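Backbones bend. Our protein:
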Amino acid sequence: MKKLSIIAIILASVAIAGEAFIFSTRKERDEELHTRAIRAGYHVYAPPLPDTLSFAGQRVPMNLYYVREGLDRELVSNMYFQSNTLFCIKRAARVFPTIERILREEGVPQDLKYLCVIESSLQNSTSPAGAQGYWQFMKSTGQRYGLEISDEVDMRNDLEASTRAACSYLKELRRRLGGWAEAAAAYNCGENGLAKRLEKQGQKSYYELYLNRETQRYVYRILAMKLIMQHPQDYGYHVRRCDLYPELPYKTVTLGGQNVDLYQFAASHGTTYKLLRTMNPWLTTDTLKNKANKSYTVRIPTQKGTEYNTIVKGKHDTSVIESI
């Protein structure tokens, strides 16, 4: 009986060892197949870095290692933040024409439109600190540059008005600080803060300053979005023209008087309250008390102006865009 028990134990041990070996072999095989699949089907690329680059007509010192690495960091971050970057490319087709026109009229370089991209991703948004709109103005700064901000109206949310205010602010920053890169950095950290750092560190260029982390990255983020949006295919973005968000056709009407019910106002002009608020995001209430009895210009969608097939130009154009 003892011999039989010993034999049974030996056979059981051999069986267990065999199963363990088979399991180990299968696991190694599965791991190998998994690794091969990753190598064959998943690729992460380092973004290309240009040898020469300019910002608002001024040379970016790409010969400095920390400039290259600073730009590389923001290119990687935005290249692989695919959802946000893709939405920026789509939205640009709607808002860039207005921004570009105002920049030309105000004498501000076109590269500054990418500042708006990194501030708000080209949409009206509110920061935790209370900055608002496409250009992310704080209330005090917005009012200083002529934007009406009240309980009923917030012109930080109006693309045209806020873009003109941003142009005035950026031009003032450039006059004080000497260059557009410095103006852009001061847009982030404040003109007094940047001026003190330039003076204390004995420098004239943003690229040679030691700054807080957010401001240190700020201009590089602008440059990264400029490169990606000007050369989307170089960074893996293949967007067809029919994928872009079109400009929305509209007409303008005058909104005036006191205690105006905006539901009734919308209906009387053949539109909905939703579209009235969507196309005029600077309106912040459903009733305009308007104690000062001001007159406002309001956008109303044109007839069939909300139907996709009537607003998309080249809706059958599936060619891939080369630049935004």
